[in-house]
Amino acid sequence: MHVVIMGCGRVGSTLARNLEKRGHTVAIIDQSADSFRRLSPNFTGRTVTGMGFDREVLIDAGIEEAEAFAAVSNGDNSNILAARVARENFGIGNVVARIYDPGRAEVYQRLGIPTVGTVRWTVDQMMRRLLPEGSEPEWRDPSGTVRLAEVHVHSAWVGRLAFDIEKATGARVAFLTRLGEGILPKADTVIQEGDLVHVVMLERDAAAIESQLGTKPEEL
């Protein structure tokens, strides 16, 4: 598919390179033509100098044929404006904007504009590495109701079915990480020593579920 990117900084140029590697066509927009130097010498896409929320600039970048748009410049306002123009004026379904301000990111998520909140994402990643029991979410839905988290499980859960965790807690085992690889649990999947257990649960139940899984399970 054709993808239009606004912003040719480190994120935009890396995104463009990765999309091309996957066989997609790419056009990238930036106010400064010098920014295009960040692109790979093998980049075959289109480069357009201008403002990414300007209608004519977007048309030059092929927005009318695009199926996705990413706004990853350094300005929150510019990213949101460009994302709204792409979605509302050109009907692009797959739109995402990078937002530095966590408060704004939440607001625009609730308005239906997917955002990547740079500050919150970084903090979440740091917290997950600082707290050994994975109490910080790996993912949270825009409403804040559901979270995906890596949950520390008591050693007594080893040898039990992943489904036993679901029966005991009402949560869902989304996947296991075993020896560095992800595993989607089946009905007969057994928790093994060293498994990392990733659970989807309601935010309001997270503390109780983490406490329950951190202790020896009762007989089911």
From TrEMBL:
<keyword id="KW-0520">NAD</keyword>
<dbReference type="InterPro" id="IPR036721">
    <property type="entry name" value="RCK_C_sf"/>
</dbReference>
<keyword id="KW-0406">Ion transport</keyword>
<feature type="domain" description="RCK C-terminal">
    <location>
        <begin position="133"/>
        <end position="215"/>
    </location>
</feature>
<dbReference type="InterPro" id="IPR036291">
    <property type="entry name" value="NAD(P)-bd_dom_sf"/>
</dbReference>
<dbReference type="InterPro" id="IPR050721">
    <property type="entry name" value="Trk_Ktr_HKT_K-transport"/>
</dbReference>
<keyword id="KW-0633">Potassium transport</keyword>
<dbReference type="Pfam" id="PF02080">
    <property type="entry name" value="TrkA_C"/>
</dbReference>
<dbReference type="Pfam" id="PF02254">
    <property type="entry name" value="TrkA_N"/>
</dbReference>
<feature type="domain" description="RCK N-terminal">
    <location>
        <begin position="1"/>
        <end position="118"/>
    </location>
</feature>
<dbReference type="InterPro" id="IPR003148">
    <property type="entry name" value="RCK_N"/>
</dbReference>
<dbReference type="InterPro" id="IPR006037">
    <property type="entry name" value="RCK_C"/>
</dbReference>
<protein>
    <recommendedName>
        <fullName>Trk system potassium uptake protein TrkA</fullName>
    </recommendedName>
</protein>
<dbReference type="InterPro" id="IPR006036">
    <property type="entry name" value="K_uptake_TrkA"/>
</dbReference>
<keyword id="KW-0813">Transport</keyword>
<keyword id="KW-0630">Potassium</keyword>
